[in-house]
Each structure stands twice: as C-alpha cells, then as structure tokens.
Amino acid sequence: MGSGIPIKNQALWLSSFDKPLELIELPVPDATPGSAVVQVLNTVVFPYADDIHQGRLPVFNLSLPLVPHPSHIGRVQAVGSDAVFAKPGDLIFFSAPVFARDDPNVSIIQGHHGGEGPQGRKLMQGEWRDGALQQYQKVPLENIYVLNEERLCRQLGYTPADLHEISFYSIAAGALCEAAQLQAGETICLGPATGTYGGITSDLALSLGANVIAIGRNEDNLARLAKQLGNPERFSYVVMTGDDKADAAAIRKATPDGRGVEVYNDWASGSLIGSPYFSAAIQTVRPEGRVVLSGAPSGTIALPYTLIMHQNIKIIGKVIVSRSGIDMIIRMVTLGLLKLGKHGGSTHSVYSLDQHHAAFQEAKEKSGFRVYTDIAPNPW
C-alpha cells in the first residue's frame, strides 16, 4: 500500500432492495478515537448474498442505504488516537459483529445484519453501518485482529483470500467451543453438513478431537465431504430420509456403542423455513447433551418438551463468537493445525468490485465447502 491519504474510496452501494448494487465513490473515512480505517483486501462472497441484497432474506434486518457485507482481511490505513497495539501497515482480520458500547446486549453485524429491535436499528444506522464491499472501511478498533504476516504469508504462503477462511472457522468455533463446549472424545452430529459451514464445522470438530457424524440428504455430497476431509476414522455420515424415527435410529447406530451424541449442531440455511433435521437429530442427544442452533432459517421448529426436560438437554442459539474464540482460530491457523487455501484443498475465485455481478452469480452456483468466491476491493 502506498503512503499518504487515499484520494478515493470505491464502494458498492445498496440503496434499495428493488435496485441493483451501484459502484460509487464515497469519502475515505477518518480514524476517530475507538476506530481504525482499513484498506479492504479480500472478503468471501456468500452463496446467498444476492438474496440478501434483493430483500429475499428479511431475517438479516438490513436498514438501507449502506455498503453491504461483513468481515474481511485488510491492511490498517490509520488508527484512532487510543490505539495501543495496531498500527498503519498491519495485516488484520476484521470480525464484523459490533456491540453497543453503552449496552453490550445490543449487537449488529456491520454491513450484514441489523440486529433486533429499535436499538439494533439505531446502532446499524450509525457509525458502523457500512460493510466490506468498499476500498476503505471504518471499523471498531476492538474488532481487528493483527495477523503475523511473516508467518502466514511469507512462510505458509497464504493470500488474503486464503486467510479470510478464518471468518468461517471463527463462526464454527462459536458454535463448538463457546456454545456446545465440545470436548475431545465426544460425538457431535451436525447438519445440513455439505454446505460451507457444515464442512468447516466438521473440520474444526475433528481438529478438536471429536467424533463427527454428518447428516444430509444427498449421499454423493456427503461422500464428497468425507473425501475432502481425508476420510478420517472419526468421521461418518448418515443419509437422511425424512422419516424422523428411521433417521434418528440411523444416527444413533452411527454413534459409539449406539448410545447417542453429546452435541447436535444445526446449520439449516437461510433459504429454509425451520430445520429439516431437528426433530430427528434431537432424539439422539444423550442426557445432559447440548443442541446448538447456528443456521439462519425463518419460521419455527417444534420442540419435544418432555424429552428435553427429562434428558436435561440444553438448547442454545449461537451466531457471534467472542474475541477469545477468534484468537484461538488464528493461533490454530498460525501453528498449522488448521490448513487454509491450497494447503487445505480450497480454491478461490477472486473478483474486483466492478466484477461483482459475476462474483455473486458464481458464488450462488458454485460456492461451498472449500470452493470460495471472493471480492478484492484492493489488489494484494
């Protein structure tokens, strides 16, 4: 990155759900106390990004207009006067969940989710409205994580596109480590398992020493996931039929000694209403087990009241991971315990801001576990 103050800030502007994204120029933000201005190098495009931008997924509660999209890999351009560690030139990972500083019970995901209720809307419309699809983004200082560029980029050979896989692993860490408190030797059932998050969560759970049972409806896709993970001994899968009794029996049969699972992690996608596997999978959860809801479907699910009560099952919703969880993932990547990019079998198709239409289309058609589509607002 060159020295001096940037003279332009190209951005993708979402003014209405009825209009396509527009490439415009915005002012380069100033780094005020409590903030950093970051040159955005890469952000992974979600398969459902276009659906968000067209208002088809109201669960995200966006207040328009804004620059959309959440986390990214970037380089610090400037920091506020209260910064004590981060400095201009640092390579960073930016985590997009933002908490109101005068009420941490109120949160949004910058550029991506408007939070809940009037306080969430107020926070979304304020200082932290605009997301990652711009060249220079103003972010909360506490949301940046300085990366070891020498180790990650020069020794391990990672690019910003590779490093943005940290964002997916971080969300999985919130579900597995913070909500489920998954322990080595425990068995986790997770699904739908063949999307990006299902695959990432399977990979992380295996890295943590757990036994993994992936569930889904397409056997070919489940077999492909097993191959992508290296066909590990602690990984198996169950093809779901839609018959809850039969599916629950099949999951239980796949567990050690047929005793059931300690954890069920649900990843129903935003395109669904409710969860297709919840009613079967919860029947396999052992006493004192944990159910973690991490997907983004609309609608409701039915709960087996007496089963949950008699088995002392905990049901937890989880989407935002703490700083310690993200730090853990960055350490695992830095130490080589988690492999990114080509080292982990991933591919990245990287587009510029003015190629966003092609990027969103490719993401919708091709993206999945270890197959990623990215937008790079600035060159690496």
From TrEMBL:
Entry-linked InterPro entries: ADH-like_C, GroES-like_sf, NAD(P)-bd_dom_sf
One family from Pfam that matches here is: ADH_zinc_N
Q: Where is the Alcohol dehydrogenase-like C-terminal domain?
A: 200-324
Molecular function terms in GO for this entry? metal ion binding; oxidoreductase activity
Listed cofactors: Zn(2+)
Keyword annotations from UniProtKB, A to Z:
Metal-binding, Oxidoreductase, Zinc
Q: Which residues form the signal peptide?
A: none
Record-linked CDD domains: MDR
Family, similarity comment: Belongs to the zinc-containing alcohol dehydrogenase family.
Q: What is the protein name stated in its UniProt record?
A: Related to ADH3 - alcohol dehydrogenase III
